[in-house]
Amino acid sequence: MRINNWMNTRLPTVVQKLEKSILLGYDSEPDIGLDLAGRTQIYEVLDEILAILFPGSFGKQRVNRNDMNFVISDSLRHLSHTLSHHIQDVFKYRCFKKKCSDCTCEQHAEETVISLIEGLPAIRQTLLADISAAYDGDPAAHYIDEIVLSYPCIEAIATHRVAHALYKHDVPIIPRIMAERAHSRTGIDIHPGASIGPRFFIDHGTGVVIGETAVIGKNVKLYQGVTLGALSFKLDKSGKPIKGIKRHPNIEDDVIIYANATILGGNTTIGKGSVIGGSTWITESVVAGSIVYGAPASRETLIRQTKKTPKK
User: To which H or E segment does residue 269 belong?
Assistant: First the structure.
């Protein structure tokens, strides 16, 4: 058959080209190379964390109340070893890339895992506040359990709060894997670097994008399609984007942002208690208590829209 002839004559050339291309960028040393199968293992770690935070909701089986202590303890012991291994790997990988000579990757990884696990009770309390905000803010919600089991924003926000804890400990790669898993499953894209206060609710959620340096206060509500993004990136002398600078907006407490609104820029702040209408384009700050709506606004129009009506 023709396919057999092709496999014997031309396929070896394709294999050689692929091998050459892969090995040029492949870290073949087992102590510093990243196991690309590890992405699936990170998914499993994330699922285990979510199951610990919400047993019976994210877990694979219902947990009896009398068995709760044993199940949580057993899960956390397993998680401690597994996650420590993965974090140590990515620390070593970064050290290899940066040619570090005095790294303490194992100790750093263990300290990070201990901090994350000891912080899980606080993360759960914050998530309970998020769930409460969803229940209070959505007339279609009839039960708290309904929100935990079916609202995509809960998985996205829960994942973010775990990934953000790792991000704050300067863990590379793993927080992004977690965030992108949530993105692929929910349509909600939250960079693990974003700082988000309690009672955060994303209604519907599809298409929401929240950038790395965004700062969101407490009791904030977003609708689908909202973007908290960056303006044009500043470039260095070699023409590459400058990293580590504030690029995304600040959203203060008690703000509501309706569907498909776009708010851009690291110097942009949406003042406390403001309401941003759907499909609005904002690149400058608005004062507390503003109501902004309509088509993309010039600065003059924006100021006029945000003036409050005097009380009689």
Answer: strand 269-270
Measured between alpha carbons, how far is 188 from 179 in angstroms, rounded to an integer?
9
Q: Are 224 and 206 in contact (CB under 8 A)?
A: yes
Residue in this structure with the two tokens 């790294």, named with its chain if needed: 103
Residue identified by tokens 């300290």 is 111
For the chain, what is the radius of gyration of the CA atoms? 23
With residue 134 as reference, give the H or E element that holds it: helix 105-137
CB 164 within 8 A of CB 183: no
pTM reported for the whole predicted model: 0.86
Query: Residue 79: what residue type?
Result: L
Rounded to whole angstroms, the Cα distance separating 100 from 105 reads 10
- Per-residue pLDDT 10s for the chain (312 aa) are 688 888 889 888 998 988 887 777 655 555 555 654 568 899 999 999 999 999 878 877 778 888 888 889 999 999 999 999 999 989 988 888 887 777 788 899 999 999 999 999 999 999 999 999 999 999 999 999 999 999 999 999 999 999 999 999 999 999 999 999 999 999 999 999 999 999 999 999 999 999 999 999 999 999 999 999 999 877 788 878 888 899 999 999 999 999 999 999 999 999 999 999 999 999 999 999 999 987 554 555 455 555 555 454
Q: Which two tokens stand for residue 99?
A: 């040619």
Neighbours of 268 (CB within 10 A): 18
Element at 30 (helix H, strand E): none
Joined tokens for residue 196: 């988000």
- Buried b / exposed e along 60-99 (16+ C-beta atoms within 10 A): eeeeeeeeeeebbeebeeebeebbbebbbbbbbbbbbeee
Alpha-carbon span 63 to 148, nearest angstrom: 16
